[in-house]
Amino acid sequence: MTNITESKRFSKFDSARLIDADKAHYMHGYHVFDDHREQGSLTIVDGEGAHIQDAEGQRYLDAVGGMWCTNIGLGREEMVEAIADQTRRLAYSNSFCDMANDRAIELSEKLAELAPGDLNRVFLTTGGSTAVDTAIRLVHFYQNCRGKPEKKQVITRINAYHGSTYLTMSLGGKQADRPPEFDFLSDGIHHLSCPYPYREAQGRSEAEFLEALVAEFEARIAEVGAERIGAFLAEPIMGSGGVIIPPEGYHRRMWEVCRRHDILYISDEVVTSFGRLGHFFASEDEFGVIPDIITTAKGLTSGYQPLGACIFSERLWEVIAEPGTGRCFSHGFTYSGHPVACAAALKNIEIIEREALLPRAREVGRYFEERLATLAELPIVGEVRAKCFMACVEFVADKATRELFPEELNIGEWVHLRAERRGLLVRPIVHLNVMSPAVTLTHQEVDFIVDVLRDSILETVEDLR
Ligand code: PLP
């Protein structure tokens, strides 16, 4: 394994060249054009475990976990070998029509074993957005097959993130992702309130807030008509929306409403699966729900290869694949079931099982939650939200009124830059610092994150004076 503290793969000259080439040619999503032009980017060239190194040789603990995805940590030789072996043996084969490859079949079988209930059917995609896109197309297909073509509208939530295609971005509900320069679909998509106790409960107890959220769902169904609603789509814990942990019992109650009204429940587990919350899938183990459809990606390969999956129930399969109908699901991507990506996923799952990473993640995750909670006493910290390896610190100008700093101040970035100088990367989202590190983190690495965050927050408080 490369020791990145010693690795100097890029000289200063290379780094300057990379900075120029980046500015000249590489358009990154979500990078403000002016910032890119003026400041360039943080160019990462190496990684091991939870650590990464930039082109100038600076090392960081990556508490972002790549992008919620490097669950088993970077630089694992076993993963490299599995990917290399598969590339040598069969680098590509398509998964259209009557074609399949052994790795894609083995992975589908394994996912069916790991998924809750009768979710035994697997459609492999290229990532999370294409998994969610597939889930919505599956809902349409299913409703048409059962003779309910009008039952296709989808209910999602404010602050949700479901991907970056035209459809999945329209399903999402983050205002920041809806700049006026982009267009969005609105027909047939409805957004419910965000189950965000800190900002939305407004003096109500958690139980009262939950009742209001369920009542809102029922009211929306009455307004739109259950006969027109095909699916409810929800992340178990909203990730990019700010690690929003819903009130206790929320998912179970929303699922019961879905059952009552014949609405499919889609759990978007692109972030929450494969150890991030200490389970393979969080829907059943953490939230007591067996969805009709689960979407997953990210931790499925721990970021070693791009891959996603849409896993759905036998109940749906029996309708869409009814014998004698001659139907086929005319949907797929060139890289659906990519053998190298599937080999990476299989090895990743083998490592999670062999190293008992799930119970370990739950144990260290609890320690992470406890240590992070100590930051709540700091002056500009409004709330600390953490569940296992999903965490967020929310900054406020006034702890009593929960008033936010002006958006232009970009308070999350202030803290993030001070943490970055100390060798820690967190993800700033306006007034938040979001974290999702490798689930293999040690207690010492947890301590490092919390200590650096504390120092960076205190330095920010000083600098704001
Ligand atoms: N769904 C959720 C909950 C996500 O957080 C993301 C990405 O962050 C996606 C879907 C989209 O996944 P991808 O970026 O792999 O397309």
TrEMBL record:
UniProt cross-references to NCBIfam families, sorted A to Z: PRK07036.1
The organism's place on the tree of life at top rank: Bacteria
CC annotations in GO: cytosol
Organism encoding this protein: Halomonas organivorans
Keywords: Aminotransferase, Pyridoxal phosphate, Transferase
Family, similarity comment: Belongs to the class-III pyridoxal-phosphate-dependent aminotransferase family.
Identification of the protein by name: Adenosylmethionine-8-amino-7-oxononanoate aminotransferase
Pfam assignment, any one: Aminotran_3
Lineage start: Bacteria, Pseudomonadati, Pseudomonadota, Gammaproteobacteria, Oceanospirillales
Single GO MF annotation: transaminase activity
InterPro entries: Aminotrans_3 (IPR005814), PyrdxlP-dep_Trfase (IPR015424), PyrdxlP-dep_Trfase_major (IPR015421), PyrdxlP-dep_Trfase_small (IPR015422)
